[in-house]
TrEMBL record:
Gene3D superfamilies: 3.30.230.10, P-loop containing nucleotide triphosphate hydrolases
Entry-linked InterPro entries: AAA+_ATPase, CHLI-like, Mg_chelat-rel, Mg_chelat-rel_C, Mg_chelatse_chII-like_cat_dom, P-loop_NTPase, Ribosomal_Su5_D2-typ_SF, Ribsml_uS5_D2-typ_fold_subgr
GO molecular function: ATP binding
Positions of the AAA+ ATPase domain: 224-407
Protein's name according to its UniProt entry: Magnesium chelatase family protein
Similarity remark: Belongs to the Mg-chelatase subunits D/I family. ComM subfamily.
Chain segments annotated as transmembrane: none
NCBIfam families to which the protein is assigned, alphabetical: YifB family Mg chelatase-like AAA ATPase (TIGR00368)
Domain of life: Bacteria
Length: 527
């Protein structure tokens, strides 16, 4: 056979494109030509694949011209996972039907990096690549052995976990598969950043006392997927509260878990054996770069923290200390739930529907409004610090809440406590109501619902709508802020078990949006 085709996937962000690796072996000047817009890693695959084929006991076509096309040719390709597909296609094209058995490659996807000895190595992004292949009708997938369980998370796909090129060829020919050394999994150093999530589940809202308004605000944020800004002096409990928000979130459903696991696979995490069912929690340091928060990096664009926290919580403590590029870059994910990274001809889009929690002190030293009178921040420094809490980014945050240190001594405010289990039950029930209301829509939570859709299908009553409009006319709300009040009103109603928002729910929503005091009965319930 002079021409053969194998298939693999090219990733652009979280989107996978099916690639035909077409190989032609024909008379001509002896050379191996690789075309189709490969990057440096794929261009080097010619040498890796040549040695892998030779050291696996097969013959590379050294007396003929070998042309390798990655089709469609206009799409940029990146990554070492093309190795296996290239090697298999070359072997299939070089088969002499008079001497060798054919190597059928129909309805199969090939993913894996090759060593010079012909062994397979794991590659990032296996889950989203297999998902893309399944959407194109591919039903057989060959992957490195440690990533077979991850690929098997996609239903209706037969997964073959292989250790070497020789094993792949034997499986394709239907002959006995030879033994091969085990494939090395990811190094331990890569696993360190993916551990420690269990600690968050140990925290409980019952640990918080005297901050009932903030606890209720966090419960509303969790129920509707709303963004939250916590302001207050140091030691007031902002970080403690943020770390306990994951404990009141329900488990992810299958679709959410599959999407989140695929994002973590893209980010280069360890091979998944099961879907990630618990909402993630990420709290990057304020010195983190724009690429680490929003995504990007050198070479292939990778998802940042805002995407890896998809369907969970992204906590940005000391928010005004983050760089201006990070602060302004948050506009897109806060508004649309996606982040798009554009570089020349490459555009990568990642889901970023995280619940973003921002925390800030009233001043750089954290002593302002603490009652100690110890703040010595100059006015210029204070103004620069507070500017990041105002303007376009702050307008995209749904809930504003000032957190004060609990009062000294004992009293009702320190004894009325809600637990995470109680709050989680209310949040789960509220989310269930939203799922029923938005069945068939492209969004799931009130915080994600488009304003136009809410006004058309789920409007506020006339009296409440006029009250919100009055706040816009008075300059207390922007139009974007009015939409957020509308969303919050529905979430408050869902938590209260109401079929639709009433005036009292709208009043609570306005208080949450503007940072005003909340009704006492809500504070007592929250603790």
């Amino acid at each position: 056979m002079a021409v053969a085709t194998s298939r693999t996937i090219a990733l652009q962000g979280a989107t996978g494109h099916l690639i035909d690796v077409q190989v032609d072996v024909s008379p001509g000047m002896v050379a191996t030509i690789l075309v189709g817009r490969p990057d440096a890693a794929i261009s080097e695959a010619r040498d890796r694949c040549r040695m892998a084929v030779s050291n696996s006991g097969f013959a590379w076509p050294t007396t003929r011209r070998t042309t390798i096309l990655l089709s469609p040719a206009d799409l940029p390709k990146r990554g070492t996972h093309f190795d296996l597909a290239i090697a298999v296609a070359v072997l299939a094209a070089a088969v002499d039907p008079r001497k060798d058995a054919p190597i059928p490659t129909d309805d199969a996807l090939f993913l894996g990096e090759l060593t010079l000895a012909g062994a397979l190595r794991p590659v990032p992004g296996v889950l989203p690549m297999v998902l893309a292949a399944a959407s194109h009708g591919i039903r057989r997938v060959f992957v490195p052995e440690p990533q077979a369980a991850e690929a098997a998370l996609v239903p209706d796909v037969a997964v073959f976990g292989m250790r070497s090129l020789a094993q792949v060829v034997a499986e394709l020919r239907g002959v006995e598969v030879p033994e091969a050394p085990p494939v090395a999994a990811e190094s331990g150093s890569r696993l360190l950043s993916w551990r420690g999530q269990e600690r968050l589940e140990e925290g409980d809202l019952a640990d918080l006392v005297g901050v009932g308004e903030a606890v209720y605000a966090a419960e509303v944020a969790a129920a509707g997927g709303h963004h939250l800004l916590l302001r207050g002096p140091k030691g007031s409990g902002k970080t403690t509260l943020a770390e306990r928000i994951p404990s009141i979130l329900p488990d992810l459903d299958h679709e959410e878990a599959l999407e989140l696991t695929a994002i973590h696979s893209l980010a280069g995490g360890p091979a998944a054996t099961t879907l990630i069912r618990r909402p993630p929690y990420l709290a990057p340091h304020h010195g983190a770069s724009q690429a680490s928060i929003l995504g990007g990096g050198s070479g292939r664009a990778r998802p940042g923290a805002v995407s890896r926290a998809h369907s969970g919580v992204l906590f940005l403590d000391e928010f005004p200390l983050f760089s201006s590029t990070v602060v302004q870059g948050l506009r897109e994910p806060l508004e649309s739930g996606e982040v798009t990274i554009a570089r020349g001809e490459e555009t990568a889009t990642f889901p970023a529907r995280a619940m973003v929690v921002l925390a800030a002190n009233p001043c750089p030293c954290g002593e302002r409004d603490s009652g100690t009178g110890a703040c010595t921040c100059p006015s210029v420094k204070l103004r620069t610090y507070q500017e990041k809490l105002e303007g376009p980014v702050a307008d995209r945050v749904d809930i504003l809440r000032d957190v004060r240190p609990p009062p000294r001594g004992s009293g009702p405010a320190l004894t009325a406590v809600t637990t995470s289990a109680e709050a989680r039950a209310r949040v789960t029930a509220a989310r269930r109501r939203q799922a029923e209301r938005y069945a068939g829509a492209s969004w799931r939570l009130n915080g994600h619902a488009p304003g136009a859709a809410l006004r058309a299908a789920w409007p506020l009553d006339d009296r409440s709508a006029r009250w919100v409009e009055q706040h816009v006319d008075d300059g207390l709300l922007t139009r974007r802020g009015a939409t957020r009040v509308h969303r919050l009103a529905w979430t408050v109603a869902d938590l209260a078990g109401s079929a639709e928002p009433r005036r009292q729910h709208v009043d609570v929503a306005l208080a949450l949006r503007l940072g005003d005091p909340l009704p006492a009965e809500l504070v007592e319930r929250a603790g």
